[in-house]
Amino acid sequence: MTAYTATVTVRLKRGVLDPEAETTRRALERLGFELDGLRSMDRFEVDLEAADPAAAEERADEMAERLLANPTIHDYEVEVRER
Amino acid sequence: MTVTVVQFGGSNCDRDAVGALSHLGIDAERVWHEDGLPEDTTGIVLPGGFSYGDYLRAGAMAARSPVMAEVRAAAEDGVPVLGVCNGAQIGCETGLTDGAFTTNASARFQCENAYLRVENADTPWTRAYDEGDVLSVPIAHGEGRFEIGEERYERLDSEGRVLFRYCDADGNVTDDANPNGSRGNVAGVLGERDTVAVLMPHPERATLPDLGSTDGQGVLRGFEAVSNA
């Protein structure tokens, strides 16, 4: 078994309104910053042990499917590295 | 023969739900989620509130708690289930109903009165009304914007599973009357069975005459047939 950290990034699907990001963008502009856009997303770093990177990725993928993301509104990606 | 109001840590409309149901002569009791559903449960309310502090997403944690497996099984057996506000979010997160309730377009918590148009009067939850009736029912939520993919929305709509839409006082479904940016102004939907329904507005806050509107009574009366059987 090898120790891995699986990074799960959960973001809203394209086209789904993100009012929090929009509010944050406006606040940045109020502070005088110039920007063309802003997206926010959640990142989870999951420490786990698995036989190989593929097995670690598979488990993290299922975590995203079943809890970390809501497939109705979210896309997600998983990245695995040794820790 | 009792409607079980499932109380999670952070539920705060559970007492109101019991009070409103009792006012209508419907036997109801609060049950702590870890105690599971009582044997004599003939209906289930998932009440409003902020279960698990809205961690991750509103309703996400409660949806994965063991009692929800029991609620899903009961729903499949035809036991009526009503999710209100946080209970609606839990219902969607559990897959009892399609779609998701997420951050209001305003990015603000909104506590105000809303008008709802009855879209389908042929359900246990709306048989006290006629299609097109306008109800005055309060909302109180920060994450009530109904989101769903285009195809799934079309299916929901064509199958008559949209229960209520936000409208103006005259029943016009307009963008201005949409408090939270919900797709299609949807305020409440049915599950696969019409015995399962969720809505963001609070019918239990529009039941007792002392609180003003009693327009929400008909929704709670959806439990009546079974609880008095």
Please write out the topology.
The complex is a heterodimer of chains A (83) and B (229).
Chain A: E1 2-12, H1 19-30, E2 41-50, H2 53-68, E3 74-82
Chain B: E1 2-7, H1 14-23, E2 28-32, E3 41-46, H2 60-63, H3 66-76, E4 81-84, H4 86-94, E5 100-102, E6 110-118, E7 134-141, E8 145-147, H5 150-158, E9 162-167, E10 186-190, E11 196-199, H6 217-220, H7 224-227
Parallel strand pairs in B: 1-2, 1-3, 3-4, 4-11
Antiparallel strand pairs in B: 5-8, 6-7, 6-9, 9-10, 10-11
Family (chain A): Belongs to the PurS family.
InterPro entries (chain A): PurS (IPR003850), PurS-like_sf (IPR036604)
Subcellular location (chain A): Cytoplasm
Residues in helices of chain B, as a percent range: 10-25%
Name of the CATH superfamily of chain B? Class I glutamine amidotransferase (GATase) domain
Rg over alpha carbons of chain A: 16 Å
Sheet having the most strands of chain A: 3 strands, antiparallel
Q: What's the average pLDDT of chain A?
A: 97
Given the helix and strand composition of chain B, which structural class is it?
A: alpha/beta
What number of domains of chain A? 1
Subcellular location (chain B): Cytoplasm
Keywords (chain B): ATP-binding, Cytoplasm, Glutamine amidotransferase, Hydrolase, Ligase, Nucleotide-binding, Purine biosynthesis
Active site (chain B): 85 (nucleophile), 202, 204
Pfam family, one (chain B): GATase_5
